[in-house]
Design a protein that fits this description.
117 residues, mainly beta, Immunoglobulin-like, four-stranded antiparallel beta sheet, 1 helix, 48% strand, globular
Length: 117
């Protein structure tokens, strides 16, 4: 069955963004419904799939990464307000049997993402 996973790399240090907080939302009728909140492990990953099997339904989702809070906790001096605070990634799930891996590469000044495997 399908699953949704994520992984965050801190491009300023070239390693995992251990401890970064994130939220997973389902987007329905203009509302963002929080499904879960968590912190990433030492490898910059969730300990288990964010959604799996019957939990993964076709539709629109949002991952909201707490980028500024993470970098502040790493001792990075950020302006107030920070250039990047929370990074929202909106994406669609069309195939409930698919593996949707949504990685984030982040610094205090930029981010990128793609559909991984």
């Amino acid at each position: 069955m399908g699953k949704l996973t994520t992984h965050v790399l801190d491009t300023t240090k070239g390693g995992p963004a251990a401890g970064m907080a994130l939220g997973l939302f389902r987007l329905e009728a203009g509302a963002a419904i929080l499904l879960k909140s968590l912190r990433l492990n030492a490898d910059g990953r969730a300990d288990a799939p964010l959604l799996a099997d019957t939990e993964l339904l076709p539709g629109r989702y949002r991952l909201l990464f707490e980028v500024a809070a993470y970098f502040r906790a790493q001792g990075v001096a950020l302006p107030d307000p920070p250039f990047l605070d929370q990074v929202p990634l909106d994406f669609g799930v069309a195939d409930r049997e698919g593996h949707y891996h949504v990685p984030l590469l982040a610094s205090p000044w930029s981010y990128s993402t793609y559909r991984g495997s």
